[in-house]
Amino acid sequence: CVLCGRTDDCPEKYGEKRTYVEYNLTVHYYCLLMSSGIWQRGEEDEGVDGFLITDIRKEVNRAAKLTCNICKKKGASIGCVAPKCKRSYHFPCGIQKECIFQFMEDFRSYCWEHKPVQKFPDRESRGTSQCTICLDLVEQLPVYTVLKSPCCKNAWFHRECLQYQALSAGIFFFRCTVCNNKDKFQKEMLRMGIHIPEKDASWELEENAYQDLLQCYQHCDIKRCLCKKGRDYNEPDSKWEIKRCQCCGSRGTHLACSSMKSWEQNWECMECRSIFAKSGSYSKQKKRSLATSEKTDGTTCLLEEPSPKCPRQSPGSQRNFLLQSPKIMCQNNLPPCSHLELPASNRVTMSLSPLTSNRNWSLRKKHLRQQRREVSNILKELKLQVNTKTTRLNINAENIWNSALKGFRQRNFSPTNTIEIKFTNCKDRSKADTSAASKHRFFQLLMLHLQNSSLFEGSSAKNLSLDFQAVKENLYFEAGKMIAVSLVHGGPSPGFFSKTLFNCLVYGPENVKPALEDVADFDVAQTIKMIKYANSLSSLQSTIHNCYEFLAAAGCLRPVTALCDKNMLVNDILIHHVIKRIISPLESFRQGLKTLGVLEKMQMHPDAFSSILCHKPERLSAETVCDLFTIHSSSDVNKVEGADFWMGYLQDVESGESVVTLEDILLFVTGSFSIPPIGFVPEPTIKFLHIRYPTGNRLLNCLELPITKTYEQFKNKMEFTIRNTLRAERQ
């Protein structure tokens, strides 16, 4: 390794060892990550995970002048961050000397003298206990090799065991093995130098890890099999099709071997029959079989109630809901939604008088404004975390997602730094200044991209989609982080969350009941409608038969013995498709929204945040714009007359008697065509001055207006300036 000089290849200790023959370079990943004088300035696919080769060479030259305080050799690239401490060391030497390396934020390193330690109450008993990972004994002492859980009193771990578990589980599944706490546990372990990689768990990334769930039992277990081609031969839609036991599913028979005329006939294996016989319920089971008791339309029930031997698998089985729903293949064409006949109980007609409707709409708008004012105050409180240190993001507006992703992932990026945007593509170079206008535009483009990206699905109210590549690249986490940063740094809110998605984030997915409107897949939605609005048991059974494979993969197969069973089945399908199927992206997205404490505030003030995350900003009105600006004027200016001209002009614009819009006016002054949830900083002001034409100062959010003798002069100057200024910017 060019930084530590060692040949060891131990990924668990030093990170992956990489060799680049074309550059004559070998380096340990952790050595590179913890080095004090290098940052990721490139794309993820450039150099070594964003560390440019030229920067690595410079860091090697810098370290060559420093002597390691442990091995006394040159090349010590890591320094202790404690004030006035001048110790330098190699990464492997630091591990050997029990230094602490924090794999988070600024990747700080502490020497053996200044490293953080866990504090335990003096009254706490000392002794030995079991490491809850390897189950070997561990001494309850505050030493480097032993760590204590911050959330459980008697949970102790070997440091080495914890590190192996963190590397395997990743950030989404690494948690306390006793109480399952995640946030508090991860925070403490990161502080104490445990590296938790931002990736999915190793068992989630195994190729075809859940393939066995798609395998159906295909073997004839009858004592005397009649099929000449063998017990494993299966020919669908013939007498040699294999039918599985309706109770346990782990035994099978050819239709001909059990003298069955149709696949729809029920069949139980000998083991399940014996269990029923011993429990005295076998005859009762036979009576409930639609094959013998209900023959009104010649259709038999597809499923029977499972036996006590093999309880039905829960629809929430982890492996089931992580499978992406297969395409539904139905023999019968589903009728379009508009042709479905709803039961009379589902058809509700309501009539409201125009007066009542307008009054309710007015009250709703007033309530929405109050909630948005509350959100503004909350976000201003969160913005107190932002310091004056500046991070510049170089953004290409034509490739907004990749350039934003690169900026958010660069090593020196911190959500608590002030963000400065510079547009790098030529046509935007004139706008690349330090004003808030560039930042407004950046976040507007970013939110628009997210709304139309593959991370979300739906028309207007969107839920998370299941994109395996995005899960692998941790894009859901980045999306949540970007939304949180946009809200706190003065950008727009997304405004496209569905109520179901919002409730999952705030109350937890286990407490949310999705609706049919949340299903974006047309085929799945049609299937649910066919089940929901089935008006007879036979039509319900036919629909279930057509969708058998989909229901099995979703873990939603359940006994159907009466028409009312359809309600539970519909509920199972909705929960699987809308929530459990995307549980991994949802957890990642939640982690991203925790940035700057946004998710915590959402959970404390759900109604307020719902107004900005689930609703688009209300259309600007003359009253809203008028209230937004504070009027200032010098002593020699008639403030009343100028204000009259200004308010009269806003009313003309609102009523359509102008060539500009209220959004154009706001864009002219602030660089944004909507009011961000946090409001504008500084607050917009108006000044009446002795000038020829109006001026929009976007740095101060100040609109300087000319003093005119007549309203017509005022209106003409406003329209001429705003229209031509915005036209020039667009060109």
Automatic annotation (TrEMBL):
GO CC annotations, alphabetized: nucleus
Entry's localization field: Nucleus
* Associated pathway: Protein modification; protein ubiquitination
Q: Please provide the record's keywords in A-Z order.
A: Metal-binding, Nucleus, Transferase, Ubl conjugation pathway, Zinc, Zinc-finger
Principal place of residence:
nucleus
Pfam hit, one? HECT
Q: In terms of domain of life, where is this protein from? A: Eukaryota
Q: Give the InterPro entries listed for this entry.
A: EPHD (IPR034732), HECT_dom (IPR000569), Hect_E3_ubiquitin_ligase (IPR035983), PHD-type_Zinc_Finger (IPR051188), PHD_PHF7/G2E3-like (IPR059102), PHF7/G2E3_ePHD (IPR042013), Znf_FYVE_PHD (IPR011011), Znf_PHD (IPR001965)
Q: Does the keyword Nucleus apply?
A: yes
Residue intervals of the PHD-type domain:
1-115
Q: What Gene Ontology terms describe what this protein does at the molecular function level?
A: ubiquitin-protein transferase activity; zinc ion binding
PANTHER family reported for this sequence: G2_M PHASE-SPECIFIC E3 UBIQUITIN-PROTEIN LIGASE, PHD FINGER PROTEIN
According to UniProt, the name of this protein is G2/M phase-specific E3 ubiquitin-protein ligase
Q: What is the lineage of its organism?
A: Eukaryota, Metazoa, Chordata, Craniata, Vertebrata
Encoding gene (name): G2E3_1
